[in-house]
Write a structure and sequence with these properties.
It is a single chain. By secondary structure, this protein is an alpha/beta fold. It is built from five helices and five strands. A five-stranded parallel sheet has the order 3-2-1-4-5, with helices on both faces. Strand 1, helix 1 and strand 2 form a beta-alpha-beta unit. The protein starts with 11 loop residues before the first strand and ends in a 10-residue tail after the last helix. Bound molecules: adenosine-5'-diphosphate. The site of adenosine-5'-diphosphate (ADP) has 20 residues, from helix 1, strand 4 and helix 4.
Length: 151
């Protein structure tokens, strides 16, 4: 019999991203992930760089305070190392398009190669598939109100 993967009592997933900024598209993936896992750890990748449009961990923690089973942390390193640190058995990511899929498959493959961790890909809700952090940044840059698109 193939052993159940991974063998953990609590199902913990890591949801990594730049979240630059954290959008309603990201929130949708997180909320749907919470129906699959006991805990989802949102990991804001900072790669050492300061960026004023990236949602900070403190800000996100307070915005997500109404959700049970969420943790938020910042991480400057490899995603798989963050997963090991928090004891996550899965990575959670979202897919909006074929272009996203190609990118996500590549990431999922390399992360599985590195540590054996599996990635769960959730398809975007159709009405949110056009929401991206880069779109929000561009709208903001030109003075447009983006409050409908961010948490
Ligand atoms: P990265 O910079 O690592 O690609 P992002 O912050 O852009 O991370 O996004 C994190 C994850 O959320 C990615 O898997 C991305 O495909 C997904 N995502 C972003 N926007 C949406 C959306 N509107 N619907 C579903 N998934 C999304």
């Amino acid at each position: 019999m193939i052993p159940r993967y991974p063998d953990m009592e609590k199902r913990v997933a890591l949801y990594p991203g730049s979240f630059n900024p954290f959008t309603i598209g990201h929130l949708s993936i997180l909320e749907r992930g919470l129906r699959l896992f006991d805990k989802v750890v949102v990991v804001i990748g900072c790669n050492g760089a300061k960026d004023s449009s990236r949602t900070s961990a403190d800000e996100l923690r307070s915005k997500l305070a109404h959700l049970t089973g969420v943790e938020v942390m910042e991480w400057d390193g490899l995603t798989v190392d963050a997963a090991t640190k928090v004891g996550a058995g899965w990575l959670l990511r979202g897919v909006r398009s074929v272009a996203d899929y190609e990118y996500e498959r590549n990431l999922a493959d390399i992360n599985r190669e590195l540590t054996g961790i599996e990635t769960v890909l959730l398809t975007a809700e159709p009405k949110l598939a056009m929401v991206s952090s880069s779109m929000v940044r561009e709208l903001r840059h030109f003075g447009h109100d983006v409050s409908d698109y961010i948490v």
